[in-house]
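From the pipeline queue, job 12 of 40. The input is one protein chain; the requested action is below.

Action: predict structure.
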Amino acid sequence: MLLKHFGCCRFLFNWGLAQKTQAWQESKKRLSRYDLDKQLPKLKKQPETEWLSEVNSQALQQSLVQLELAFDKFFKEKKGYPRFKSKHGPQNFSCPQNVKVSETSISLPKLGAVRAVISRLFEGQIKTVTVSRTATGQYFASVLVEDGRELPASKKHTEKTTVGIDVGLKHFATLSNGEKIENPRPLKRKLSRLKREQRRLSRKQKGSKNRRKQRLKVARVHEQVANSRKDFLHNVSTRLIRENQAVALETLNIQGMLKNRKLAHHMADVGWGMFFEFSKYKAVWNGKTILQIGQWQPSSKQSLCGYVNADLKLSDRLWTCPQCARTYDRDIQAAQNIKRFALHPENFVPQDMREVRLVEVGVG
């Protein structure tokens, strides 16, 4: 029944995407999810798609909601046109009602009680439950709960309670207090095994059972890498948010940086974007503040006296200022500059902005 729900919701998502695309190409008409919802009862009565009635109807409607959200993201954030879902890889469906969670099971519409390992009990109203299946065949249920608690108000921060963070490749992050956090490089540690398993997969005959088994082994390696990266990022972001009242970050064009074919592999492995996302929502949960500076601030090139070293190369880890004769560690100086720029009132960037006017900041 779980596989049937995955298949029906995937089919309806692809069907809705085809309907919306065809309507726009033929008559420049935009179909909403409500227009597609009206066609759902007729679709269930057709002989070739009558199997849609065997699964939870609200799960089918939620797949159309996901399609609508995908188009909203395309129009507002320019994240790319929605693509058809494949039966290979991760699968999911959502249930917005009639879900119960106990200490040993979770009850879903059309499925009944399903045995489950509950990570922790909760109190509150269940809003939505999303059931997902990973590429390695593991099943998870994510429960969204409304507990009625208000988020804590942001606490005041000072220069002493603020830390600047400069992310990098050699070290994952360098803090303004001089601490350097090593980069675990989870993909690099598993790369030799991944290449070996992928070579074996390429030699298997397409459509054979051995190929399916080998594809599962490749997926397990990818899953181990992703889990290691997430675990590290969760630990680091949680520690930094708990230890400081405010965290200063630099706005990075990560998508543009990934176009560098020489460094894209290492940038994708470090997970900067995921670290920024984790830090932002954990700051909201704990009443802390996230400060961001503009993308074009010379964080690693500006000295304490205000001199900007425009000729600084990426290979230069130490440099000496010709004006004040001080020698700077590139990463530590960048973290300290990020903190100074972020605390300056004319350089402050809220979380929902990405541009800022450059103001030169000196020792003062």
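Job complete. The radius of gyration is 25 Å.
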